[in-house]
């Protein structure tokens, strides 16, 4: 792979005695869409959250965009902010700021983090609201929106900072299926526009259709990876076969 | 009965003047005490022990000591430290200290009620810790705390009665003065009680409304 935009080397994450992520290495190319799947407790979300250092690995090397950090000692505040500015994250529970309008949710981080003027930030916000098909909701408060609408706002808020890579942590798990679809369709458009995306998900159909690569994790390790047609339809390990069979039976 | 009502009509203007001073004391106590309470709330949840422990000590002393003791200490204690304050200012400062200690706990509870996910969202966006506090945590923590803070405002309004011990001519002090002059202590104290109730009951009703509105807005 030439010049990965995200590169993890020898990442270990521990909670006390629990070894949540074990020596994981992973390269992701610019524009690639990677789906991370696996049973709960496999360490997928933990690994994803290490990419913007919401989880602190005990050891390893992290490279995102222009930044490379050795993780055996704590990151300085400046490095940490720079790293987070180059990544966007979408959470399972949306995590919009409920005391702000939709417009302020998206504009405020641009003004505080990128130093954009209010006018410029609001222009970017308006454009992004078009893009997630919620242009009419600029003045609404999050509590008045459906879960699917809130999640699309959350995607717009992350995109507004021009991230080099978007991290999705089970973006549809808290949504009814039909509301999940509108979120997945926005993500599909994003992928088609060439955004680099890492998506922790149980939506196997989405992974099969949109992902360039599927990564299967179990017990804190990557046990299988490859193009979706290979990993999902023809998994090589019994453990992976069992996992996908269980998911297909549920749907 | 007509005697009582005539007396009350005579006394009421005096007591209302006293009420004005009680309300002023309440206003000062809240205006000085609430910002200090917020500072103590943030400091007592700070990571650094140099900030955290002094803040916790101040809060515990301020809540542990009776308001009357704090009041007497400020009034009689500060002059011996070379600081001469008027009775009114001493009273306002003492009540503000009590306010700060109690409201810091109320505000801390409000701040802790802000979901961790929103803090993480701010972090993931690359916002600084100060910005997350300023724009995400404090505004919501304060909103969450509003009903309890309003309830506390009623208590500190009642506590202004303690300042009659340092000769501030507030509501209760004036009632006593009338009682001393007429020996109709019970009659005038009942009227004073009614004046306190005329403030606390409508305000308490506002508190309940605020709590309900809050529930529907953020829930």
UniProtKB/TrEMBL annotation, chain A:
It comes from the Bacteria. One of its GO terms (molecular function) is ATP binding. It is a peripheral membrane protein. It is found in: Cell membrane. SMART domains: AAA (SM00382). CDD domains: ABC_HisP_GlnQ. InterPro entries: AAA+_ATPase, ABC_ATPase_HisP-typ, ABC_transporter-like_ATP-bd, ABC_transporter-like_CS, MetN_ABC_transporter-like, P-loop_NTPase. It holds the Pfam family ABC_tran. Residues 6-244 form the ABC transporter domain. This is Amino acid ABC transporter ATP-binding protein. It comes from Tabrizicola soli. The lineage of its organism: Bacteria, Pseudomonadati, Pseudomonadota, Alphaproteobacteria, Rhodobacterales.
Automatic annotation (TrEMBL), chain B:
Coiled coil: none annotated. Gene3D superfamilies: MetI-like. Its main location: membrane. PROSITE patterns: ABC_TM1. InterPro entries: AA_ABC_transptr_permease_3TM (IPR010065), ArtM/GltK/GlnP/TcyL/YhdX-like (IPR043429), MetI-like (IPR000515), MetI-like_sf (IPR035906). Residues 19-207 form the ABC transmembrane type-1 domain. Belongs to the binding-protein-dependent transport system permease family. HisMQ subfamily. Part of the binding-protein-dependent transport system for glutamine; probably responsible for the translocation of the substrate across the membrane. This is Amino acid ABC transporter permease. It comes from Tabrizicola soli.
């Amino acid at each position: 792979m030439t010049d990965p935009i995200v590169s993890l080397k020898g990442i270990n994450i521990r909670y006390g005695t629990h070894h949540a992520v074990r020596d994981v290495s992973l390269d992701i190319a610019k524009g690639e869409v990677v789906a991370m799947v696996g049973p709960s407790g496999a360490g997928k979300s933990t690994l994803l959250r290490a990419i913007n250092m919401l989880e602190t690995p005990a050891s390893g090397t992290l490279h995102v965009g222009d930044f490379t950090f050795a993780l055996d000692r704590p990151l300085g505040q400046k490095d940490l902010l720079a790293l987070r500015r180059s990544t966007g994250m979408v959470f399972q529970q949306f995590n919009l700021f409920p005391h702000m309008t939709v417009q302020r949710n998206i504009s405020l981080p641009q003004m505080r983090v990128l130093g954009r003027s209010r006018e410029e930030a609001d222009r970017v916000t308006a454009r992004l609201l078009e893009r997630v098909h919620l242009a009419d909701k600029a003045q609404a408060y999050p509590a008045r929106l459906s879960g699917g609408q809130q999640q699309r706002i959350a995607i717009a808020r992350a995109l507004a900072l021009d991230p080099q890579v978007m991290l999705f942590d089970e973006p549809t798990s808290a949504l009814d299926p039909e509301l999940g679809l509108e979120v997945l369709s926005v993500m599909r458009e994003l992928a088609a526009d060439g955004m680099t995306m890492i998506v922790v998900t149980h939506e196997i159909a989405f992974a099969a259709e949109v992902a360039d690569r599927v990564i299967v994790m179990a017990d804190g390790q990557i046990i299988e990876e490859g193009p979706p047609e290979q990993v999902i339809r023809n998994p090589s390990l019994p453990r992976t076969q069992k996992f996908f069979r269980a998911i297909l039976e549920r749907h | 009965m007509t005697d009582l009502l005539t007396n009350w009509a005579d006394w009421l203007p005096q007591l209302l003047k006293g009420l004005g001073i009680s309300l002023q004391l309440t206003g000062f106590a809240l205006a000085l005490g609430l910002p200090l309470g917020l500072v103590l709330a943030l400091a007592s949840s700070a990571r650094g022990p140099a900030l955290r422990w002094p803040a916790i000590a101040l809060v515990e002393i301020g809540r542990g000591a009776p308001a009357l003791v704090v009041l007497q200490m400020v009034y009689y204690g500060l002059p011996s430290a070379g600081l001469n304050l008027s009775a009114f200012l001493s009273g306002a400062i003492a009540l503000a200290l009590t306010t700060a200690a109690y409201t810091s706990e109320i505000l801390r509870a409000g701040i802790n009620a802000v979901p961790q996910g929103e803090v993480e969202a701010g972090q993931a966006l690359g916002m600084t810790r100060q910005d997350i506090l300023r724009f995400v945590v404090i505004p919501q923590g304060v909103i969450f705390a509003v009903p309890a803070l309003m309830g506390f405002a009623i208590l500190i309004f009642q506590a202004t009665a303690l300042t009659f011990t340092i000769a501030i001519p507030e509501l209760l002090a004036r009632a006593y003065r009338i009682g001393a002059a007429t020996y109709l202590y019970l009659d005038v104290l009942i009227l004073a009680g009614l004046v306190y109730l005329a403030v606390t009951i409508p305000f308490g009703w506002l508190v309940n409304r605020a709590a309900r509105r809050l529930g529907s807005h953020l829930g």
